[in-house]
């Protein structure tokens, strides 16, 4: 571990917190132009990175270093990329909070939601889940740390393709132009385009909500249905995404961008997507618990469906795809039956969210 | 009348302790505001230079852009003079802008001189305009006037107070009642005194009445704080008695008619430089008085952003004395707002639109104001001024030493908010976002430190019940119903008041709002007190009990106005 990093203010390393498949891909992208310091909780993982430059069979650039010490990475880096599943996100931020300062930039890449209930409340005894109880990751960062300059990465970024250095693009969203500029400068390369967007909530929600549709899309394929059905799902899914996203504070425009439509189309057609795969296997008759236990990393869509369903109960909104997917996932409704229901759902207007 | 007196005694409270506050900077020469007024000329020069520099930046130092900016300014000013001139406007206004026009025309048609020279000439014109604005904005604080006013307010008014309350010949010399009994200052009074000698305070009060300025001036002096400078609407200087108060209290002038870039830039520069100078400042972040009677739900970011810019500039300079800026929200609570009838009318007429401010009747002459003040101080209508917890420029609470604390009590170095790669840098877009965030925090704090009065409770409950009675009507149709048709049986009303009160008590437990001590009485008493006090001096009472024992209104728009005070707490879900 090169301790000089900590001292020199120039060429400070860029931090990556969490080293799953997406974290690995981003670390490698960052390592093209920068020193990269990775945080992982597991000693063995850190040792493997420092010694063999490998993490779970994926190759890391040889310049990348790793540590298990939150203080060390916070002291060494001004810019960090949290790449942790939503279920662990808050816990990690709480652990990092004592070492974070307002000069830090955090750009996360987590497409999930976190439940935040008042003390003494849990899902068993709370009456209504309101918007304030459901946080995007930037909101978690705001709640748990003093970091103000927050950004998020979203868009069609299938980790496997990024690792193969295939052409692609991402969106960095932040209220702060300086965060967008910093992210662009760090990540942009010949094969990787980086767009900016100031509507961070809209972009985060795009990434989060599209996972619901991705599961449904996988399920359609699992049933052996054709492309007409998929076109139907994606466009109706898009409408649902826009409605939900607006209700939760995003702007319509963001859902039509790379992080919205772009990511939606990609994930709904890709066997590389975990959420798609989950839907596919469910339609083939497997049980949710079995599929989840079997996956290497979490499919964020499952938790998202659960939280959004709860949120819907406190509003007048209807979101037929999400509601039926919830029944499929948690109430043993057959995929076929859910599909039947959707076909009969009384909405006949194609698009009405531009009014 | 007997009941009346008794009820008022409930107000002289338990949880409020009358303090005698020593001045924190006893020597007047130590006040930054005095230092500033002594170096007025240099200060204005600094403001002019700094504003010109900023406009240079905004126009990208481009000849064409600069020319356009000046032409727009000229155009807007000529329109203003033509359409909306005031008594307070200087006599040479026409003349000055005619000269500017001539200068711009001459420059435009001059083909001979080269661009660089031409740009210089445009900057000359810009500097002249900026200087004129800066001179107009600059305050005329005079210490002798300040002392006079201070004495006038506390001495004169307490005479009035005692004359009316203590009966008999000697009443005029009685000191039984003081202004502090009438106007209760509660909340974080010790903290603001501490911080005033450790940094620069920016006080941000709610704004309901023109009386607020005087009230806050009095509050500041009662707390032993040095005078604050603040931006007061130029229209108030139309009225002599106000002009006197304003000048005495260190007010600088804000002209809301002037919406051109050059003026706004000069105004903001003035405010920013004054904060950097260490002058405690006061903004009404809502901009103008609340027309609807709601607590501000949005604030104007223009002046607020100057607090953030000043803080950053102080960090750029290194740690200076009075270097940290503290934002202190203040909520003012009344049973009665003199201007309510015209405010709510304006609000309903122009909902959502900003218009030129037209001076309303109540405060149009010194006579009317004096009459009101006599009324106010001789009859019982209590006011409370709640001083909120001090925050840093990002809305984090600070402790008594002025250290910012996060939600978990860890210290934050505020400088870090402006740092990139170990250095403080200027990023206006970032600071704009910080202003928005601070604005939101101020609104949150307003709601928390707001103190519920009995009159708010009854007005809110009654209006909600009337709305429910007529649930098919939209707001405007409801307000158009004849008042004779509207009444509430007392028992229904009382029951609903009980429900709302219970919820308010719960909110107080959660720290979401405060309650005046008279709200600890029994429900019946609270209602009676509320009915006595709600909008008590209006010709038409917003709420009263009629002979049949029903609750009725004489002016539903006014009732709506007083009801709005409790908007934003989701209390409407109860009724």
From TrEMBL, chain A:
The protein's name: Glycerol-3-phosphate dehydrogenase [NAD(P)+]
Annotated gene: gpsA
Residues at which sn-glycerol 3-phosphate binds: 111, 155, 210, 263, 273-275
Organism listed in the record: Cyclobacterium qasimii
Domain named Glycerol-3-phosphate dehydrogenase NAD-dependent C-terminal: residues: 199-339
One Pfam family per UniProt: NAD_Gly3P_dh_C
Location(s), subcellular: Cytoplasm
Pathway note: Membrane lipid metabolism; glycerophospholipid metabolism
Residue sites binding substrate per the record: 111, 274-275
Family: Belongs to the NAD-dependent glycerol-3-phosphate dehydrogenase family.
Catalytic activity: sn-glycerol 3-phosphate + NAD(+) = dihydroxyacetone phosphate + NADH + H(+); sn-glycerol 3-phosphate + NADP(+) = dihydroxyacetone phosphate + NADPH + H(+)
NCBIfam families per the UniProt record, alphabetical: PRK00094.1-2 (NF000940), PRK00094.1-4 (NF000942)
GO-annotated molecular function: glycerol-3-phosphate dehydrogenase (NAD+) activity; glycerol-3-phosphate dehydrogenase (NADP+) activity; NAD binding
Catalytic residues (UniProt): 210
Domain of life: Bacteria
UniProtKB/TrEMBL annotation, chain B:
Transmembrane segments: none
GO terms for cellular component: endomembrane system
Protein's name in the database: Glycerol-3-phosphate acyltransferase
Native organism: Cyclobacterium qasimii M12-11B
Keywords of this entry: Acyltransferase, Transferase
Catalytic activity, as annotated: sn-glycerol 3-phosphate + an acyl-CoA = a 1-acyl-sn-glycero-3-phosphate + CoA
Ranges where the Phospholipid/glycerol acyltransferase domain occurs: 201-335
Subcellular location: Endomembrane system
């Amino acid at each position: 571990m090169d301790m000089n990093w900590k001292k020199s203010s120039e060429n400070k390393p860029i931090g990556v917190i969490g080293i799953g498949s997406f974290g690995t891909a981003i670390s490698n992208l960052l390592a093209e132009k920068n020193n990269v310091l990775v945080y992982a909780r597991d000693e063995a993982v850190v040792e493997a990175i420092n010694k063999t430059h490998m993490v779970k069979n994926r190759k890391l650039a040889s310049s990348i270093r790793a540590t298990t010490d939150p203080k060390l990475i916070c002291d060494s880096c001004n810019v960090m990329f949290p790449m942790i599943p939503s279920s662990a996100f808050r816990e990690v931020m709480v652990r990092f909070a004592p070492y974070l300062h307002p000069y830090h930039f955090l750009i996360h890449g987590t497409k999930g939601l976190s439940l935040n209930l008042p003390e003494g409340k849990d899902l068993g005894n709370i009456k209504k889940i309101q918007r304030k109880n459901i946080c995007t990751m930037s909101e978690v960062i705001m709640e748990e740390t003093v970091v103000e300059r927050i950004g998020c990465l979203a868009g069609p970024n299938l980790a496997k393709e990024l690792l193969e250095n295939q052409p692609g693009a991402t969106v960095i969203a932040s209220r702060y132009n300086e965060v967008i500029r910093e992210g662009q400068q760090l990540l942009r390369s010949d094969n990787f385009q980086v767009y900016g967007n100031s509507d961070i909530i809209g972009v985060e929600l795009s990434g989060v909500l599209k996972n619901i549709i991705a599961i449904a899309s996988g399920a359609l394929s699992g049933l052996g249905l054709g492309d007409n059905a998929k076109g139907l799902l994606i466009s109706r899914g898009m409408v649902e995404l826009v409605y939900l996203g607006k209700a939760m504070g995003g702007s319509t425009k963001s859902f039509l961008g790379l992080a919205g439509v772009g990511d939606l189309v990609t994930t709904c057609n890709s066997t590389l997507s975990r959420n798609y795969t989950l839907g596919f296997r469910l339609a083939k008759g497997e049980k949710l618990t079995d599929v989840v236990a079997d996956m290497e990393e979490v499919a964020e869509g499952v938790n998202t469906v659960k939280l959004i369903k709860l949120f819907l109960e406190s509003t007048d909104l209807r979101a037929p795809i999400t509601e039926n997917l919830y029944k499929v996932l948690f109430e043993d409704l057959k995929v076929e039956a859910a599909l039947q229901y959707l076909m009969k759902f009384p909405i006949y207007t194609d698009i009405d969210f531009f009014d | 009348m007997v009941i009346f007196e008794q009820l008022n005694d409930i107000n002289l409270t338990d949880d409020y302790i009358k303090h005698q506050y020593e001045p924190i900077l006893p020597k007047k020469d130590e006040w930054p505001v005095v230092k500033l007024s002594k170096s007025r000329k240099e200060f204005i020069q600094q403001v002019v230079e700094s504003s010109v520099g900023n406009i240079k930046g905004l126009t990208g130092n481009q000849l064409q852009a600069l020319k356009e900016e000046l032409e727009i300014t000229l155009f807007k000013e000529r329109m203003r003079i033509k359409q909306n001139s005031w008594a307070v406007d200087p006599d040479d206004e026409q003349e000055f802008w005619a000269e500017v026009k001539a200068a711009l025309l001459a420059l435009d048609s001059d083909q001979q001189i080269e661009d660089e020279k031409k740009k210089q000439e445009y900057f000359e014109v810009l500097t002249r305009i900026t200087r004129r604005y800066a001179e107009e904005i600059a305050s005329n604080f005079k210490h002798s006037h300040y002392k006079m006013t201070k004495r006038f307010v506390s001495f004169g008014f307490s005479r009035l107070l005692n004359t009316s309350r203590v009966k008999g010949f000697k009443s005029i010399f009685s000191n039984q009642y003081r202004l502090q009994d009438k106007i209760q200052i509660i909340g974080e009074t010790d903290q603001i005194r501490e911080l005033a000698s450790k940094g620069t305070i920016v006080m941000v009060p709610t704004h309901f009445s023109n009386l607020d300025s005087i009230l806050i001036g009095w509050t500041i002096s009662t707390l032993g704080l040095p005078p604050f400078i603040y931006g007061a609407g130029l229209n108030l200087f139309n009225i002599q008695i106000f002009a006197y108060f304003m000048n005495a209290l260190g007010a600088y002038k804000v002209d809301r008619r002037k919406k051109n870039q050059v003026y706004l830039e000069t105004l903001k520069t003035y405010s920013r430089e004054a904060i950097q100078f260490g002058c405690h400042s006061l903004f009404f972040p809502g901009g103008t008085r609340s027309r609807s009677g709601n607590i501000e739900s949005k604030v104007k970011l223009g002046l607020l952003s100057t607090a953030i810019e000043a803080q950053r500039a102080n960090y750029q300079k290194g740690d200076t004395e009075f270097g940290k800026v503290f934002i202190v929200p203040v909520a003012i609570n009344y049973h009665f707002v003199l201007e309510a009838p015209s405010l709510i009318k304006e609000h309903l007429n122009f909902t959502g639109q900003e218009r030129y401010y037209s001076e309303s009747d109540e405060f149009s002459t010194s006579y009317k104001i004096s009459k009101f003040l006599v009324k106010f101080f001789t009859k019982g209508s209590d006011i409370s001024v709640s001083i909120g917890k001090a925050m840093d420029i990002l809305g984090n609470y600070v402790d008594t030493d002025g250290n910012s604390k996060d939600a978990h009590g860890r210290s934050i170095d505020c400088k870090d908010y402006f740092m990139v790669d170990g250095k403080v840098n200027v990023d206006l877009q970032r600071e704009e976002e910080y202003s928005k965030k601070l604005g939101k925090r101020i609104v949150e704090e307003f709601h928390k430190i707001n103190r519920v009065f009995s009159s708010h409770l009854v007005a809110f409950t009654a209006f909600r019940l009337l709305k429910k009675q007529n649930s098919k009507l939209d707001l405007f149709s409801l307000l158009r119903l004849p008042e004779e048709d509207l009444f509430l049986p007392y028992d229904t009303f009382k029951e609903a008041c009980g429900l709302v009160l219970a919820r308010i008590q719960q909110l107080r437990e959660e720290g979401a709002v405060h309650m005046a001590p008279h709200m600890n009485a029994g429900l019946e008493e609270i209602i009676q007190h509320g009915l006595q006090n709600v909008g008590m001096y209006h010709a038409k009472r917003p709420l009263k009990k009629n002979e049949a024992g029903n609750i009725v209104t004489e002016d539903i728009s006014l009732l709506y106005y007083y009801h709005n005070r409790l908007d934003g707490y989701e209390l409407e879900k109860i009724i």
